């Protein structure tokens, strides 16, 4: 039978408990310690210390130190407060004590298994990390060697190209010299031919006058011819007209309306067959902040009549609110295609589509493309001060980025 240790000591605060168990001259390497959140055990034959704690402690924070002839437990209470006693009232019940002992042994066993598993996992991870690091080092070395080889090849290629360029320049200069010499020779020959022809014409003219003088005929006097022009009146050109473009625009609108009648579904209600009602419904959703419902309404209207540019432009405004910038660009581009030819009747719609697409480009940090759309919108509405201010801010962003 083991000898139960009763001359232990303990102290407590609101948050901590210290338990001191004397070893009675036994060496530290022969001490078996077991600790859990409710149970303490120190076994050093023939002595045995067991304690069923009054309340639970934090097993993960506590510690046990062996030294100076004693085992000192440093425990942290799970719930602050004074116990006023170390042992639980159930410590005298052998059945409960046995149960707590077995639970403590099971917890310790499980904890040791987890620690072993964690240690094994950590070891494998460290080995894998070491292998990865070695592979990275080897890859880096191969890349460095490959880079050196590539650099040498590039240098040799550059030297060869430089030599070829020098030879080409030398050949060009020699060719230019030969061509210049040939041109000078040709020009000299041409000049000699011109001088020879002048001499021949002069000699021929002198011969003619000499013949006329010998024949007694005097030279003919010069005469004058009076020319009068009939006055002609040209009509003033009229102002350039946009009539063909306007007729084309009205024709496209008429085709869009005819497509509405051709694409109606018999299963739809009268309101659902009306694109204008759907557009108004989408505008109402947009005003209330329900952008997804507005997109659904505009999309349904587009299915009924895919040639109305306002549906694409309005849907682009919804996508802009939802930050679907690529869809904004797609819808605005489709609207601009349908707003051709540009006439005064669709100027306001073209301006809206350009501004929305330009805003989407800027949100995607494609500032050059965004500035192009804003400048195109300014060409449509040159007196719009807000547009001019926005375009100037985009230019400043582009300049700061380039700087």
UniProtKB/TrEMBL annotation:
Keyword presence, GTP-binding: no
Basic and acidic residues compositional bias, start-end: 183-198
Start and stop residues of the TPR repeats: 275-308, 351-384
PROSITE patterns referenced in this protein's UniProt entry, alphabetically: CS, TPR
Location of the CS domain: 3-87
Disordered as annotated region, ranges: 183-222, 234-256
Main location: other
InterPro entries listed in its UniProt record: CS_dom, CS_DYX1C1, Dynein_assembly_factor_4, HSP20-like_chaperone, TPR-like_helical_dom_sf, TPR_rpt
Protein name, as recorded: Dynein axonemal assembly factor 4
Phylogenetic classification of the source organism: Eukaryota, Metazoa, Spiralia, Lophotrochozoa, Mollusca
């Amino acid at each position: 039978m083991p000898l139960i240790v009763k001359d232990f000591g303990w102290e407590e605060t609101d948050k901590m408990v210290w338990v001191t168990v004397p070893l009675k001259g036994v060496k530290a390497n022969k001490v078996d310690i077991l600790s859990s959140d409710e149970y303490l055990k120190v076994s050093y034959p023939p002595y045995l210390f067991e304690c069923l704690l009054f309340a639970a402690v934090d097993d993960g924070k506590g510690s046990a130190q062996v030294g100076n002839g004693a085992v000192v437990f440093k425990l942290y209470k799970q719930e602050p407060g004074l116990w006023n006693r170390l042992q639980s009232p159930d410590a005298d019940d052998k059945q409960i004590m046995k149960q707590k002992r077995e639970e403590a042994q099971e917890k310790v066993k499980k904890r040791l298994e987890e620690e072993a598993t964690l240690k094994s996992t950590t070891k494998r991870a460290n080995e894998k990390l070491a292998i990865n690091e070695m592979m990275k080092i080897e890859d880096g070395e191969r890349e460095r060697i490959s880079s050196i080889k590539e650099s040498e090849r590039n240098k040799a290629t550059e030297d060869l190209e430089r030599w070829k360029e020098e030879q080409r320049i030398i050949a060009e200069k020699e060719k230019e010299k030969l061509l210049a010499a040939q041109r000078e020779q040709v020009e000299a020959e041409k000049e000699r031919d011109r001088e020879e022809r002048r001499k021949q014409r002069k000699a021929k003219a002198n011969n003619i006058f000499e013949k006329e003088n010998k024949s007694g005929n005097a030279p003919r006097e010069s005469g004058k011819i009076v020319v009068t022009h009939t006055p002609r009146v040209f009509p003033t050109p009229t102002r350039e007209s946009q009539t063909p473009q306007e007729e084309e625009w009205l024709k496209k609108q008429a085709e869009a309306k005819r497509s509405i009648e051709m694409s109606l579904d018999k299963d739809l209600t009268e309101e659902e067959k009306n694109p204008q009602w759907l557009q108004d419904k989408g505008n109402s959703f947009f005003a209330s902040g329900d952008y997804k419902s507005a997109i659904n309404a505009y999309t349904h209207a587009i299915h009924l009549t895919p040639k109305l540019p306002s549906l694409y432009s309005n849907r682009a405004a919804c996508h802009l609110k939802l930050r679907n910038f690529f869809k904004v660009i797609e819808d605005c581009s489709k609207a601009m295609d349908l707003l051709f030819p540009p006439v005064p009747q669709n100027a306001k719609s073209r301006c809206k589509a350009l501004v929305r697409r330009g805003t989407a480009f800027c949100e995607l940090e494609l500032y050059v493309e965004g500035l192009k759309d804003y400048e195109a919108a300014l060409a449509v509405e040159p007196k719009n001060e807000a547009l001019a201010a926005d375009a100037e801010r985009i230019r400043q962003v582009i300049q700061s980025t380039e700087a």
